[in-house]
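anyone seen this seq b4? input:
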Amino acid sequence: MKSPIRFSSLLQAFFTQRLMQQKQVSSHTIESYRDTFRLLLKFIQKRRHKQPASLLFEDIDAPLICAFLDDLQKQTGYQCAQPQCPARRHPLLLSPRSL
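predicted toks r here
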C-alpha cells in the first residue's frame, strides 16, 4: 500500500520544480499562483477543518474545487461568458488546474 501524498509536498515541488525550473515563469505568475493557492488553502481549512500542512492529495477533489470556485465567484462577482465550462469560470482556476 502506498503512503499518502502530502499536498504541501506537491505544492512545494510545483512551485520550485515546475514553475521556476522547468517553465521559468515570471515572478508575477508565481505571485499570482501563490495568491490563488493561499485562497484555496484558506477555503479548505474553513470547509474541511484541516490545517494546510496536514492536507493529503486525496483530500482535494472536484466537488471541493467547484465549491471553491463558486465561493470565489460570489466574493469577486466575476461572471464567466461560458458558465457551463468549469475551466473557464474564473482565471484563478488556472493555478489549481495546472498542478
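The two ends are 24 Å apart (CA to CA). The chain has a mean pLDDT of 83. kinda curious what u guys think
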